[in-house]
Amino acid sequence: MGLAYARVTLANPRRPELAPIEVDALADTGAVHLCIPEHVAVQLQLDEVDRREVTLADGSRQVASYVGPLVVSVANRKGFAGAMVLGNQVLLGVIPMEDMDLVINPKTQQVVANPANPNIAGSIAMGVLECAQPTRVRRKLRGTEK
Q1: 6-31 pLDDT, tens digit each
Q2: Is the pTM of this model over 0.85?
Q3: Suppose 67 and one of 2, 46, 61, 121 were both cysteines; which one would form an S-S bond, judging by CB atoms 3.0 to 4.6 Å apart?
Q4: Of 31, 21, 26, nearest to 54 (Cα)?
């Protein structure tokens, strides 16, 4: 399929006085998270919120700093994300792509807004119950509704 790249803007919402960073990111549907190099985390003054053990493409494992929050902008879409501090380039994984309803166009190898939702990001919220009638919902869940 080849490599797909996307022009990505990264910003720290906790520090709006810092200039956002614009980079070409590798879009990888085999990767889960957003990954950023250490110099990006330092430049945006991102806070470490956790450390995680990650498995790399070669099967090796290493512990990485998990930082955030970040505002990620791609193809006229925005989302919030955390990022693994890892590697020497920005890597856009499936969690931020799904969050912003982005897809990779296989013909052009570009990251684009989902053609099914071209104007606003779509999402799936399965299993959400209406809270307007909580007593009725509780009865229905227990099977005691009349």
Answers
A1: 999 999 999 999 999 999 999 999 89
A2: no
A3: 46
A4: 31
